[in-house]
Specification:
This protein is of the alpha/beta class. It is built from 19 helices and 13 strands. The longest helix is centred in the last third of the chain and has 24 residues, at 464-487. The radius of gyration is 22 Å and the shape is globular. The two termini are 26 Å apart. The protein binds 2-acetamido-2-deoxy-beta-D-glucopyranose (2 copies). One 2-acetamido-2-deoxy-beta-D-glucopyranose binds next to loops. Belongs to the UDP-glycosyltransferase family. This is Glycosyltransferase. Pfam families: UDPGT.
Length: 488
């Protein structure tokens, strides 16, 4: 039951699949601690999710397709749902027009958000006390301040990536970023980071031209986050202790991860997929334990046709069984069937090619032996949780930095290729075979078991998830009391 005392947070996930999923689970977590949450998807994400779920037939029968939280609502959680325009028409192809999408994020969406916030501040019960906004939004703390609200920034990538962005000024000052000829020697002056090589920085920080729209977005977002009251990060304290402790010098920074999709730890799932899911269970049931490679490049990154062909031809030369998730737009929504002609027929029986699936359902299946991944952070956490070793082919953004954590630091995966921006079929063949071969896989799996313990401990009784979440809620309530006293 909502009472006058419940803190009410409006939660804005960044409109990409990999950001919406942890935000949904954050919403459930906070609601179970007495928060009223209004979860705000963009109209475009809402449209895609409900379309995909109608295809999946999840809630269509009982007319609940419009309420993505229907599955958990029964438990008494006060999670409300609203939508907001991102400034572009609902059906606009954001994947094909990435520049325009980024432009809308930087320059247009704030006006729509502000309109919604203004309305809710006026008439919501319980009254709105806080915005929880994905760190990549450029307007979070600015809008919160304007309406006298607290602001918690939600970071869905490793703390290492956050600190690198947060300290871009140091990278620029030292000539490692945004200079005509970026320095290539190791970087040893970022708080909490002993040393990192420029090739392991996020792709945007490896570019010479720092004036693109994405750069404008990153600069503005990391300027805005300086005004936030709290940062909530989907990482585990014991995975990145030095970075987290260094970041806590600036403002309260809470490692509340791993925020795993609820299905991993609890059966009540909220439908979040943007594409209809294929069910691979029967096919997997017919394969020996640990024999199948699961390949997915996530929900957003594009792969060049040329790299896709090299990977396809490498898989063709191997005799490994595989499930390959290829979104319709994985190369471009202009190229809906990018595989080499005859590939599907040539791998029939041992290769299953699908548009999308429940990653949780696949990763938890005993037939899965490894995960060829673009190194998205959710995929990494999920794979560690399921003890599935990683074969890494990062494509852009934080994926290069995440690869370093997986391969170089934690040793729970290997590289697909020596040069991470190039790949050829011989290398794919060699590394896929090596990776799926029992010796190496068992070794990686054993190390993964060790890393998984950090996640288990974090989620267990008295673990860092609960502890840091409690700490956030207590500090939040204290601060909310002070600011409401100041207003009255
Ligand atoms: C979750 O589902 C599995 C199989 O569908 C069942 O065995 C288990 O009891 C369920 N767990 C909970 C907490 O409902
Ligand atoms: C993996 O690739 C990265 C980037 O190209 C490289 O720095 C690293 O040494 C490679 N690691 C191994 C074990 O080959």
């Amino acid at each position: 039951m909502a009472t006058e005392q419940n803190p009410h947070a409006i939660l804005f996930p960044y409109p990409l699949q990999g950001h919406v999923i942890p935000a949904v689970n954050l919403a459930i977590n906070l609601a179970s601690r007495g928060f009223t949450i209004t979860f705000v998807n963009t109209k475009s994400i809402h449209h895609k999710t409900t379309q995909a779920n109608n295809n999946n037939n999840v809630h269509a029968a009982n007319g609940e397709a419009d309420d993505i939280f229907a599955a958990v609502r029964g438990s008494g959680l006060d999670i409300r749902y609203a939508t907001v325009s991102d400034g572009l028409p609902v059906e606009y192809d954001r994947s094909l027009n990435d520049e325009q999408f980024t432009g809308a994020m930087v320059y247009v969406m704030a006006a729509h958000v502000e309109e919604l916030v203004a309305k809710m501040v006026k008439c919501s019960v319980p009254p709105v006390s806080c915005l929880i906004v994905d760190t990549f939004f450029v307007w979070g703390s600015a809008i919160a301040k304007k309406y006298g609200l607290l602001c918690a920034s939600f970071w869905t990538e490793p703390a290492l990536v956050y600190t690198l962005y947060y300290h871009m000024d140091l990278l620029i000052k030292n000539g490692h970023f945004a200079s005509h000829d970026n320095r290539k020697d190791p970087i040893d002056y970022i708080p909490g980071v002993k040393t990192i090589e420029p090739k392991d920085l996020m792709s945007y920080l490896q570019e010479d031209d720092a004036t693109t729209l994405v750069h404008q977005l990153i600069f503005a977002a990391f300027n805005d986050v300086r005004g936030a009251d709290f940062v909530l990060c989907n990482t585990v304290h014991d995975l990145e202790p030095q970075v987290i402790e260094a970041l806590q010098c600036y403002k309260p920074f809470y490692a509340i991860g791993p925020i795993l999709p609820r299905g991993f730890t609890n059966n009540a799932t909220v439908a979040t997929s943007l594409w209809a899911e294929s069910d691979c269970t029967q096919w997997l049931n017919s394969k020996p334990h640990g024999s199948v490679l699961y390949a997915s490049f996530g929900s957003y990154a594009h792969i060049t046709k040329w790299a896709l062909w090299e990977i396809a031809n490498g898989l063709l030369l191997s005799d490994v069984s595989f499930i390959w998730v290829l979104r319709p737009d994985v190369v471009s929504s202009n190229d809906l069937d990018p595989l080499p002609v005859g590939f599907k027929e040539a791998v029939r029986g041992r290769g299953m090619i699908i548009h999308w699936c429940s990653q949780q359902q696949v990763l938890t299946h005993p037939a899965i032996g490894g995960f060829l991944t673009h190194c998205g952070w959710n995929s990494i956490l999920e794979s560690i949780w399921c003890e599935v070793p990683l074969l890494c082919f990062p494509l852009f953004t934080d994926q290069f930095t995440n690869r370093k954590l997986v391969v170089d630091d934690w040793k729970v995966g290997i590289n697909l290729s020596d040069n991470q921006r190039l790949v050829n079929k011989e290398e794919v063949l060699k590394n896929v075979n090596r990776f799926m071969e029992e010796n190496l896989r068992n070794q990686l799996k054993a190390t993964m078991g060790e890393i998984k313990k950090y996640l288990e401990n974090a989620l267990g009784p008295g673990g860092s998830c609960d502890k840091n979440m409690d700490c956030f809620v207590n500090n939040f309530n204290a601060k909310a009391k002070i600011s409401s006293a100041a207003i009255n």
